[in-house]
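Extended Data, panel c. Modelled sequence:
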Amino acid sequence: YHASDNAFLDFYYPKDATGPLPVILWIHGGGFIGGSKDSRQDYGMTLANAGYLVANIDYALAPTQLYPGPVIQANEALSFLNGTAAQYGGDMERIFIGGDSAGAQIASQLAALQSNPALAETMDLAPAVTAEQLRGALLFCGLYDMATVRESGFPNIDFFLNAYTGAESFETFGSIHELSTIQHVTSAYPDVFISAGDADPLEPQSVALAGSLRLKGVDVTEVFFRGTDKNLKHEYQYALDTNDGQETLQKTLEFLLEESQVQK
């Protein structure tokens, strides 16, 4: 879907699908330096079996590819879907963007790019879809505020972000504010499903973003476990052999169904 490295995507869709399916673009995590779409195949197929066309993408990794490469690639993937999703049964008037960890940061920024003209102008990128096409964002255990992320104590966070930005210290990177989605949400931002475990050092990032979204009037569905002592770690959402993983999956599917049925 793009001329650069690792620009591949896999489509998953239910074999007995009838009618146009809402589309989910999924962006894997891995600290911007690792991971692949293959690690999210099982989860993507689980979403597809619930009645969605899932596009599970790869993107070029740092330090070979620096910011904003992955955001550009993900935007190109949306453009590609605009032209091809229909032949796989997809309805591009109902698209969701989702991701986990670093992928959630990219997904959150991509959603802001589609819905905030000021950010699009700053990044000098044309949004691939309209805000009306975008039905929701699914954000799992991500990072959304570069001014506070270091104090989260997430292991090797400076290593990941230094690699992604190419800076000796990511806070000094000239465009670091662009990565702080918390600064770029507007009332046009899509409805959001956001979740993090109580033992995830990045959980405060999700809580803060949820609060900022609500202040802008965005509808937020949150799954947090503050004060529960469940000890749910980073990316607990993929542990579908656990009760909490299954319960969050069901809430995710309820969000997707509700948002895909809204008339716009």
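The chain is about 35% helix and 15% strand. This feature is highlighted in the accompanying rendering.
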